[in-house]
Amino acid sequence: MNMHEIAIAQGIIEAIKEKAFHEKISEVKVLFGELQNIDINIVMNYVTMTLESLNIKVKLSYEIREARFKCNKCGYEWSLSDVSLSEDEREMIHFMPEAVHTVVSCPNCKSSDFEVLDGKNVMMLVR
After folding, report:
1. For residue 117, which phi and psi values (nearest 5 degrees)?
2. A GO biological process this protein is involved in (predicted)?
3. Mean pLDDT of 90-118
């Protein structure tokens, strides 16, 4: 497991611990943004094992949120699967999702002035 996955897993664990301290929770759904490009199985296994060792019992699930973009110049919307990226470019985005603006451009007008609509962050839904 690399440092990026460890940091994300620890952030999830700390958020769950904090929430569980203040209220009873039964379910946590982790939403992983596609731009994070992380090894989800490693993160979820680490979170599961740590929560078990802390005796925090919650149902864990996850969803991968597709990266969606909207061009500020022409209004075109697209997803990450609509563009070709090298392994080096994907790795750069993995460590710094903001770097997407340096390697991706609008497939319609080629502008690099676009918004990331979804798929950038890691979020949690807690019940």
Report:
1. -80, -35
2. protein maturation
3. 94
**Which sign, positive or negative, has the C-alpha torsion 67, 7, 127, 19?**
negative
Backbone dihedral angles phi then psi of residue 116, each to the nearest 5 degrees: -90, 110
Q: In the prediction, which pLDDT does 1 show?
A: 61
Give dist(CA 59, CA 70) in Å, integer. Answer: 34
Domain membership of residue 60 as a residue range: 3-126
Who's near 115: CB < 8 A, 6+ residues apart? 69, 70, 72
Q: How many domains does the chain have?
A: 1
3-state SS, residue 96: coil
Residue 37's pLDDT band (cuts 50, 70, 90): confident
Q: pTM for this structure?
A: 0.88
Q: What CATH number has the domain bearing residue 119?
A: 3.30.2320.80
